[in-house]
Design a protein that fits this description.
alpha/beta; Transcription Regulator spoIIAA; single chain; 111 residues
Length: 111
């Protein structure tokens, strides 16, 4: 799994590629927790390059969402497709989190 982040406007865009599973999910959680500790509280997680997500990946996303809620932050997702979208839909994440067709649409939610 590869994680890249950059500041765009009022949010931090985090692009995740590869697989998010029991082995790699802790790296995702650690990377976002470090950004939160640095003061970032608005995230767009871009998943166009994510091929697979397991329950461990979903747990990491929930952990980050809880950490952001405490700080008044927000996380939304862009370009969720294929089997990753199926997992989001089956797990109910599609109704819990804002999901957009593009990073630009996600960034627009932050005003």
């Amino acid at each position: 799994m590869d994680i890249q982040s950059c500041k765009e406007g009022m949010a931090t865009v985090v692009s995740v590629t590869g697989r998010m599973d029991a082995i790699t999910a802790p790296a995702f959680e650690k990377a976002l927790n470090e950004l939160i500790a640095a003061g970032e509280i608005r995230f767009v997680v871009e998943l166009a390059g994510l091929d697979y997500i397991s329950s461990a990946g979903l747990r990491s996303i929930l952990a980050i969402a809880k950490a952001l809620k405490v700080k008044g932050g927000l996380i939304c997702f862009a370009n969720v497709a294929g089997t990753v979208k199926e997992v989001f839909d089956i797990s109910g994440f599609g109704s819990i989190f804002q999901m957009h067709g593009s990073v630009a649409d996600s960034l627009a939610t932050f005003g």
